[in-house]
Structure formats: C-alpha cells, structure tokens
C-alpha cells in the first residue's frame, strides 16, 4: 500500500476560505486555564443567535418586522419589533447553552435569573443597538459583556455577581449588521474580527489582531445638541474643525465605533446640561466597547476617568463616553480637565 503525504492544493484552483470562528475559539481556549470550554460555548451561542438576528434583519422589510413594537423599555425608549425579536433570540441561545446563570439586557427591567445555579458566567447585552435605524436601512449592532460570577456555584445569584466593574470582564464583543455582518470580540488577548459568509453559514477570521490607530482625524458626535455641551467639549470640537477633521456620525453606536476602530477617530456621547450623567449604559454598552478599545490599543473614559474602573451602582446606569484613538481621547479629556480646573480656581 502506498501512502502519499498531503500537500496544499493549488490556490489558483481552490482558494482557502480561512479560519472559522469555531476553530479559532477552540485554538484560543488554552488561554483560559480556569475554563473548561464554558466560555467558548458562550461565544458560540452568541454567534449562533447573531446569525439568526442577521437573517431577521435582512428580511425585515419583507416580513413586516420593522417599525415600533408599541411598548417602551426601562430607558423610556420606544421598542422596535426587532429589539424584541433580538432579545428573545439571544436569551434563548444563552439559556439553552447552559453556561450562563444570569443575563442583564437593555430590554428587561430586571436581571434575568436563568435558574442555572451551576452556570459560571453572567452576560450583559444590548441585543440590538441602533434599532431605530432599521427602517432606513442603516447599520445596527449587538453589544455584549461576559463576567465570571463571584459567588459559589450551586446557589442563587447575588447582586455582587452582576454589579462588577468593567475591568472584571473576561470577554466582550459586538456584532455589526451592515453591508457585511461582522463579529468582533476580545478575551483580553487582543481583538479579532470575523465576517459572516452567508452561503456557508459561518463566521471567518477576516480581521486578525485588530489595532486602533494611535491618532486620527475623525470625530463622531451629535452636534445638534452642541449648545448643551460643557465649555471644554465645545472648545475641543472647535479645535477639530480648525484642523479640518472629518465629522462622521451615523447615530448607531456599533457602526460609529467600528469605523473609528479601523480608521482612527474618537466617538463622543457626552454629559450635557439636559443629561448630566450621559445616556449610554455602563454595563452593556460602555464597558464592552471600552474593553475592546483598550485591547486594540485605544482608550475609553467618561471624560475624567477610565470607563473600566467605574463601580456600577445601578443596573441601567448611564455614563458619558469618550472612546477611540488614544491621542484623540487624551486631548479631549485634557480640554475638559482644563475647564474644570479653571472652574474650581474661580
């Protein structure tokens, strides 16, 4: 019997499709000596739900699932039909996976106890960020954070399992539903992005070891409320205009963040006189993106301190957010601090 050694095929005939998300997760599992595959399973569950939400998003105009649902969530925001659908899809996936003991969702007033006392992890999630843009065919997304529970297994979850600062995250990521669908995540060892191939039903590694440019020339902020900004921020925006920076604001957090992560820039959702605590949620929006930004070499603050060091005090706590290229965030923070110091000295 003859044995022939395998050699790669001619790439001109059959090109490589790359590394699938499942294979990548399996390879990287060794980075977590405390895990026995549970964290990997959660990431797979999130990826599966994302595929379903991607399908629903793409057929929204045909299936009459766009538009308002007729109810408001805990934030007082009008729920879209796809908000509700996405929340159901992710909740089902995380429940059936069996590795999660509790979920915090933007769409639910309270913590959802999955009654799985052996689950080692807590997930905080915004199932469908930017859903008001669905009807006008603009990119939307999903944002998620994963924490290890701190109380002993076999017991019901307690508040300390939920109310953890962002520096305790073991993984975080987002899914961008746009011209292509991407899943980007970190487990504290860099950031990797995967693009969905619908004909194969798989996410493939397309953006390995993503790194944010240290500086940039894009600023993303809703200038329609500029009269409500504090003086330091107004001066920073004026400085951006003097340098002829590009103003790019989609109004979809994941899409704006993703663009600036790749091209270099700063995303700002500040405190204003109308919303002094900001509007973005700490547990399932700011913390996740801050973790990703830092792992990619970027920076995230509330204007005065590191986002990941904020101790949460309430489930749907809000925060200002300055996030993106390190030099741009540092400069914006500097403008705010100079103004603040002057106020104190007066």
TrEMBL record:
**What Gene3D superfamilies does this protein's entry cite?**
3.40.190.80, Fructose-1,6-Bisphosphatase, subunit A, domain 1
- Tell me how the cofactor is bound: Binds 2 magnesium ions per subunit.
Q: In which pathway does it act?
A: Carbohydrate biosynthesis
Entry binding sites for substrate: 129-132, 222, 249, 279
> Which residues of the sequence carry a binding annotation for Mg(2+) 1?
106, 126, 128
Checking InterPro entries in the record gives:
FBPase_C_dom, FBPase_class-1, FBPase_N, FBPtase
Among the GO biological process terms of this entry, one is: gluconeogenesis
Answer yes or no on keyword Magnesium: yes
Chain ranges of the Fructose-1-6-bisphosphatase class 1 C-terminal domain: 213-336
User: Catalytic activity, per the record?
Assistant: beta-D-fructose 1,6-bisphosphate + H2O = beta-D-fructose 6-phosphate + phosphate
Which keywords fit this entry according to its UniProt record?
Answer: Carbohydrate metabolism, Cytoplasm, Hydrolase, Magnesium, Metal-binding
Record Pfam families: FBPase, FBPase_C
Please indicate which superkingdom the organism of origin belongs to: Bacteria
GO molecular function per UniProt: fructose 1,6-bisphosphate 1-phosphatase activity; magnesium ion binding
The residues the record assigns to binding Mg(2+) 2 are: 126, 129, 285
Q: What is its EC number?
A: 3.1.3.11
- Enzyme class (EC, first level): hydrolase
Where's it found, cell-wise? Answer: Cytoplasm
Single GO cellular component term: cytosol
What NCBIfam families does this protein map onto? PRK09293.1-1
Q: How does it assemble?
A: Homotetramer.
What is this protein's record name? Fructose-1,6-bisphosphatase class 1
State the organism named in the record: Aquiflexum balticum DSM 16537
The gene from which this protein is expressed is: fbp
